[in-house]
């Protein structure tokens, strides 16, 4: 039980808190369920939901201790050493580069859109924290709404509220359009 509980709580590496992947996944999936219908895509399509979740995890490739960083350490470790956490991968430059690369590779909007929405949701969630982001990287200016600290009870309440709202939204979509 203690081991399971420790996996649910934010982990501390050095003096920095790491947002658990589950928070970003929940916000990414929620963002996709709200955005997809406006793009003419299904918000209940399993592939779209998975791609939004993956997109929500991608910005943390710059942190070797993150969920994605631990799995892609060959990329994460050198990236963190060269550019640090919440640098280029947490900027609008990265969003545009990701979108351009995916389009250049010939991927359809049904793949690109959920990945990008998930990615943007990660940036939006991190903007709520007091640490903020360097959205205009390479500029060193940080942007922050500062509603909560990473790993705080307030963050958990926000994520739970977003997940609840997304669940209600998905139930309404399901009722309106059927399975």
Please characterize this protein's 3D structure.
The N and C termini lie far apart (about 35 Å). The chain is mainly alpha-helical and about 180 residues long. About 35% of the residues are buried. It is built from eight helices and two strands; from the N terminus they run H-E-E-H-H-H-H-H-H-H. The protein has one domain (about 20-175). The chain has a two-stranded antiparallel ribbon.
Summed up, what is this model?
60% of the residues lie in helices and 3% in strands. The chain is mostly helical.
How many H/I helices? 8
What share of residues is helical? 55-70%
Structural domain tally: 1
Shape: globular
Distance between the termini: 36 Å
Output the helix-strand order: HEEHHHHHHH
Number of DSSP E strands: 2
What is the typical, i.e. mean, pLDDT?
86
Share in β-strands = under 5%
* Cα radius of gyration in angstroms: 16 Å
Strand order of the largest sheet: 1-2
> Biggest β-sheet, characterized?
2 strands, antiparallel
Q: What structural class results from the helix and strand content?
A: mainly alpha
Which residues sit in consecutive blocks of at least 5 with pLDDT less than 50? 1-18
Features:
single chain; 179 residues; mainly alpha; two-stranded antiparallel ribbon
Secondary-structure map:
Blueprint: H1 2-8, E1 11-13, E2 16-18, H2 21-35, H3 46-57, H4 67-71, H5 73-83, H6 92-104, H7 109-127, H8 153-177
Antiparallel strand pairs: 1-2
């Amino acid at each position: 039980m203690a081991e399971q509980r420790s996996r649910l709580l934010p982990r501390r590496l050095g003096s920095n808190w790491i947002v658990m992947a589950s928070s970003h996944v929940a916000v990414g999936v929620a963002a996709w369920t709200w955005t997809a219908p406006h793009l003419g895509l299904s918000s209940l399509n399993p592939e779209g939901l998975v791609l939004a979740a993956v997109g929500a995890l991608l910005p943390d490739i710059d942190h070797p201790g993150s969920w994605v960083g631990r799995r892609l350490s060959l990329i994460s470790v050198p990236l963190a050493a060269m550019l640090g956490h919440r640098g280029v991968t947490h900027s609008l430059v990265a969003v545009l580069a990701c979108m351009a690369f995916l389009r250049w590779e010939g991927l359809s909007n049904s793949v690109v859109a959920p990945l990008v929405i998930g990615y943007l949701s990660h940036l939006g969630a991190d903007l709520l924290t007091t640490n903020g982001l360097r959205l205009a990287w390479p500029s060193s200016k940080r942007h922050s709404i500062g509603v909560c600290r990473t790993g705080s009870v307030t963050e958990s309440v926000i994520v739970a509220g977003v997940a609840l709202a997304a669940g209600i939204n998905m139930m309404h979509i399901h009722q309106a359009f059927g399975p």
